[in-house]
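Minutes, project check-in

Agenda point 3 was the complex the collaborators sent over. CS summarized: two entities, 653 residues total, and the question is how they sit relative to each other. Sequences were read into the notes so everyone works from the same version.
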Amino acid sequence: MSITIYVSGDSSAISLGANRVAMAILNEAEKRDIDIHLVRNGSRGLYWLEPLVEVEVNAGLFDADFINGGTHSLALGATEEIPYFKKQQRLTFARVGITDPISLEDYVAHNGYKGLENALKMSQAEIVKQVTDSGLRGRGGAAFPTGIKWNTVLNTPSEQKYIICNADEGDSGTFSDRMIMEGDPFVLIEGMTIAGLAVGATQGYIYLRVEYPHAQKALNAAIKKAYENNYLGENIQGSGKTFNLEVRLGAGAYVCGEETSLMESLEGKRGLVRFKPPLPAISGLFGKPTVVNNVISLASVPIILDKGGDYYRDFGMGRSRGTLPLQLAGNLKHTGLVEIAFGLTLRELLYDFGGGSASGRPIKAVQVGGPLGAFVHESQFDTPLDYEAFAANWTVLGHGGVVAFDDTVNMAEMARYAMEFCAEESCGKCTPCRIGSTRGFEVMDDIINNVDREKNIVLLRSLCDTLLNGSLCALGGMTPYPVLSALNHFPEDFGA
Amino acid sequence: MTQTNTPSKVIENIITALKNQPGALLPILHGIQDELGFIPSTAVPDIAKGLNLSRAEIHGVISFYHYFRDTPPGKHTIHICRAESCQAMGGKALESHVKAKLGIDYHETTGDGKFSLEPVYCLGNCACSPALQLDKEDVYGRVTPELFDAIINELGA
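CS then shared the predicted structure for the full assembly.
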């Protein structure tokens, strides 16, 4: 009897040696003439434990009798029973780490394509209503209600419309999009197909960052299978509906995660941010009505159509409905992916899940929401994870990235880095961002080197005010969040 | 063994194959860089002609995107993540070590042509910081200076 063994093929797991572990298991099994079936699954998201070996059956490795569940100092028991995993509410990530990512049979056997099945029986307006009712808001970070966006595209007449998946997951400290694309690509394909049906779009593009070659492979393999099995292309499952899907690669420009810049890039141009209006929903890619949604938003659609908008809406708090895949990174003991309903506090996330700092030193600051998110001070750790509660604190929940720093961090250096990053990545279209960011890190250099410190801090605040209010997009507009939060919460690092 | 095409033939083939796609420029540039390792300046007029764009527009796109390069890379390219999570886990020390070990700064190639060094702002490997990428597909996590030395020694540095 063949024994199924899972060693993740997720790129983070590979970065920690999963390929070598997989190879060693295969070699050893062959040597011992043991029949095994090795599945390269997505990651369970328990990255602190990767490379993780899971064995299906009476469950240490060969000498430790790992095939038969022998006791080994590294054995963890059933993955589902590990508290870090057990306490989560996995809706969007239900299959990640459990199935073979590019097996369509596995996908269908684990409730895949049930959402599409339902959507094919509904009118376009009914599909949009389910998504609106679910309360789903854009998981890329802007938190705009997905249903409203879809409705605008649905109601804008055009012979050609587009669905774009924003897979330019450039926000540092985030990796949930990558995990979905590597670990369960079909769920994204299904979500985009449903979006296409809902608004009447027949062409979809996944704009994927070039830094994610493993995701590219998984997506292309899954798209091929979807075409072969009539889940993409013409007359999908006999419905008469058409949806085509293609992966396009970015080229290492952070600003292309901004939706209008992304569309310029897809059109083959420099990623310069566009003025809004017109909204992309009215005039987007090639001037046509376009839905631009983040990976997680789209990957949450299948379960909403499968179980109903109400089911999804019943998770969460306030106006933040459903679940948020949080990504624990930086100086934490238990880094990884935690999908859970909105409402948990940041402190619970950092300590109950994250286990405190990896270094054992006190956590000094936490940057939530990517490189444009504020640094959160310990006094704010009891804020519930909710878009409005975070906004009320002048912090950003964003795409759910959580990067912790211990007390060895110098926050003036981090503020300088934020300005440097903005200068590096600015598209150059608007003056506040293009020139302000360069002036910003020059001023930060002076502050760090104690040159006219007090005057320069006044200048820094004025510069941030200009960036905040005068920039065309969130890159320049939000760079002041990390800079000012560092200055306001940690003045001692700025020489105060 | 098939006959190896000259660079100009490679470029021509890629342009012909891709120019009718909507938004063809990035796929063409990726195609050329995948094949040749960089986008030679001699390709610019051909691409411009193929897409009916000006040479300035093509140059503008190539120079806008960090990933595209107009000079040949070393045999191996190392991308080191400079982002926050890696900084929180010793990324800056690793960065200094790598620069010292290779004797080059970012955007440079070692004298023997073996290694090019580039910064990257996040590899999505933040739960396993600090991270680096070797060539296109090999990502390494929780990288220490010792691990880095082992990686490049294996490549015959």
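Noted in discussion: The domain at 104-313 of chain A is CATH 3.40.50.11540 (Rossmann fold).
Follow-up: revisit at the next meeting once the mutant set is ready.
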